[in-house]
Amino acid sequence: MYIGRETETVEFKKTTGELPAALVSISAILNKHQKGILYFGVLDNGKVIGQQVGDNTIRDITNNINNKIKPKIRPKVYKSILDEKELIIVEFEGEKVPYSADGRYYMRVGDEDQKLEPDELNDLFKKFGRNIPWEEQDSGKTIEDIDEETLVNFIQKANKIGRIKEDYIDKETTLKNLNLVLKNGNLKNAGFVLFGKQPQLLLRCAIFAGNDKTTILDMKDYVGNIFELVSNGMLYISEHIMWVSNFKTGKTNRVEIPEIPLDAIREALWNSFCHRDWDNQFDNHIAIFKDRIEIDSPGSFYSDSPLEDYIELKASSKLRNPLIAKIIYLSGEIETWGTGIRKISNLCKSLNVKYEYYIAKSDVFVCFYRKTSDELIEVTKVDMGEEKRYETLRNIDKNEKEVLLLISENPNITQSEVSLKMNYSKRGIEKIIRKLKDKGLIERVGSNKSGYWKIK
Q1: Range in 36-40, 180-184, 385-389 with the lowest mean pLDDT
Q2: Does pLDDT of 95 surpass 80?
């Protein structure tokens, strides 16, 4: 049986295995006609072949549309039977043009979905009275302003976890594949803040003597791209929080564990850049007080749902910066969008750490409350699990930490490159690396020429 043909408002898909392409079609049709219909279980020529519908099939389709079509729409997804075959029908509409699918924009032309060029997208935003998002705007920078080492490390991490299959070729090819280059050859703002050489992003870190900002004990500013700032922020916090010994592992050696789960801090740091308002001229901050640690993200909370709904997974993610969020997701630094608050909550519960979010006029703060001496004693009785990865941070000196940081950012780095970056003699670097090997912290995999470093 045949049910017609594809048009500018009608799309056929053979199976839900074509769901990514279906999302593209939905966004393209919305951008052209603001409503349409899509069928799963129908060939391109309109022949009905049917689609197996499991218990979670409709829910999976709905969740994908909610998470990846932006602005959010409310589709009608249901099962139907035609010629004794099951179909899934998706009816959708929306007036908040333009719509993106997984961070990219398309337009329906006939029965095809064509990717919008930057100038076409700009015209579409203007036509519907909307401004181009900051992350999509022209940074005025070129591919030559990209830090290639950061880009290569990103691709290697994404390959390792299977979120990107393509190997690194060159800067231009990689950046275009990531949708970070405009038609005129300039970088989008997203590309520059993620991978740029010194993009003038600032992370300001400070330690205060008490529970307010009256007396400053230490202050340090880091300048770099997002990946560099998160690494530096984690290093700063790990050096200035309390660590205690845990003997519940059943082993002779003690395990050094932090007063606050570092994975929770890392999640909060990534979210502070991922969801910040880039039109806000203020900087990201880390403030370490006697009783708490605060991580500040410029910009108001970007959701109509209360924070509690995210903790309980009752609310779907709403992204202020979908392109930046997608790149950070591909790197493995964040998981499914909208679950970061829930992850922080679970991690803090594992160590009985009190935390809270609070929203100021133009900032969102994540606050982790530090432990008293009595509370720290209780930490020594906790089975740490994943936190064992951080047990050695207190037992190595500043130079060893810096070498570890460089290796973590680039496992292929050579000793000569480490020497140059640290402004340290090659013999001195060889000595530091020998110490790290003796402590069981790193190992060399493969030959000196073609191998890489592995942090154990």
Answers
A1: 385-389
A2: yes
Q: Residue 214 belongs to what domain range?
A: 201-240+260-370
For residues 339 and 260, the model is more confident at 260
Domain closes at, from 370, 394, 424: 370
| Same structural domain, 217 and 358 | yes
Quick one: 231 and 353 in the same domain? Answer: yes
Q: How confident is the model at residue 300 (pLDDT cuts 50, 70, 90)?
A: low
pTM of the model: 0.60
pLDDT of residue 344: 86
Residue 233: closest CA among 207, 209, 204: 204
